[in-house]
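TICKET #2291
ISSUE: user wants both folds in one file
ATTACHMENT 1:
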Amino acid sequence: MTSSNSSYAAICQRIDAAGRSAGHSAGLLAVSKLQPAAAIRTLAGLGQRRFGENYVQEALAKQRELADLALEWHLIGPLQSNKCRDVATHFDWLESLDREKLVAPLNQHRGAGRPPLNVLIQVNIDDEAGKAGCAPDAIARLAALVAQAPRLQLRGLMAIPQPHPDFARRRAAFRRMRDLFDALRSDHACADTLSLGMSDDFELAIAEGATQVRIGTALFGERQKDEGRGEKGKATGGR
């Protein structure tokens, strides 16, 4: 078994085991930012179909190179206003909606011949300065706007809790997100996705309610540094 085979199989087994313990299933989003298209193709050959990218232009280049594969593309990095057309046109999911002004252009540019763009609202759950995501008290308003947009589909919440070395503090953040997710679902039955957890804490996230985990390093190995490529000082969506 190759290194890619063994890493992918091991991660999938751990996700399945964590889901069984938690009493619910969880899906894997492979975070492929700064990874070559060839690495994505290899993982796709093992059965992975969902890939998360942070940078729109990098993702578009990979999509062109991998156009022969039936893949599902998620934007998990901060979205700039001038990229709304590209995201609405070329992605299946946006996991990082955090501002009201993005809703209208995303809806406008989503082609009528495609299914609605799946949307997760990103929450800055630890109120970190410089990190993308809306405040918890802004979720209801954003969710209502997405629900009213015919070319968008509200699917749930995403967060990147502070990577504190004390896992009890991470657990507390995950639990706060689960409470927010439950509140969202009480008003929007279509909300079915809580995207939490990365390479070093995904099992804890699943135990606290995550239905999707975002894993990059544990699948692909260390990536190139991405200094200067994200929006100013904002944390990106997976590791």
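ATTACHMENT 2:
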Amino acid sequence: MSFDILSFVAHGLMPLPWWGYVIVALAMTHVTIAGVTIYLHRHSAHRALDLHPAVSHFFRFWLWLTTGMVTKEWTAIHRKHHAKCETPEDPHSPQTRGLPEVFFRGAELYRAEAKNQDTMDRYGKGTPDDWMERNVYTRYSWEGVGLMVIINFMLFGAAGVAIWAVQMAWIPIMAAGVINGIGHYWGYRDFATADASTNIVPWGILIGGEELHNNHHAFGSSAKFSSRWYEFDLGWAYIRGLELLGLATVRKVAPKLKVEAVVKPVPDHATLEAVITHRYAVMKNYARTLKQTCATEIAALRERLGRGELANVPSMRRLKHWLSGDTVSPLPERDRATLSKAMESSKALATIYAMRQELNALWERSTDSSEQLLARLQDWCRRAESSGIAPLAQFSLQLKRYA
């Protein structure tokens, strides 16, 4: 009898080889990731898709067991993150709090913000408020993870407790740490959004597509995160599968930019609409198109000024990025002085900077009529094409192909 008890403690009701426990742990944590990205993120926070009640409730139950997270709390905190992104009010921005703080203490930041009743009231609207949510999932939010450790132990014995520990660490590390931290600090950008969001890698598999974080910030209400042909969003693949089964309905995806073969003589209303809709892609393309011109001009200034003030500034690389508009961090006062000096010494840099500012202001003029905005865009293209800067003129011609 004692042997049986020891065997049960060691292996539970389902003894497995070591690799079997690894597969179980990966499978369970992956279901949790799917619940976060499909249910909490794309469905609840952004309303990018509707889920069948059975699917929705399965994810609610699973996340209660494996994370203890409450739908309203997660939704409200994430919506506030988008509304206050990269400001001191952002619940988890590495730009304001530092990467180590967000990466290592992301779960604590989440719990602290969950206690902010103003955040819950303002950003938590439209989340589940049925009997189960009020009396079980919210009232006993951490009892679920206690039930999970019992289930794991019964099934797999001591190994099940280890699997439970991995489950408990998975979301704080992968979501709170990697996505909220690294996803706003390091990676590549498809779109020049007004925040510091990045795509960590182009293959969104391990975290269910959340790796494509910059794409998500560019089109927050899109159910699909991938944008380029080489990017893969596993969460979107799951959503398409649920659609085929009649268990999900996609409400919105990022619009596709249509480019005509022929350059229009002048921009029209379709061009204006396309430019405003795809403003982040427009600014990213502007950065790419003018990057080499900026680099050439700055290199020429360095050579001409020798060891003067401009040559001794260590942040020229940052200046080049800022000139092309692909950064969110404000320039230090010393760099602003350097930028001013550079534009005084280079007509091309001054023109590139001024034209970027004017283009960016186009979609910020909310009080202007469409006719006024179109006139501004037409004037912008005319001056870009007569600027004497070939890449800027080419960029203007590309804009006039938008439809």
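RESOLUTION: both attachments delivered.
EXTRA DETAIL ON ATTACHMENT 2: The radius of gyration is 26 Å.
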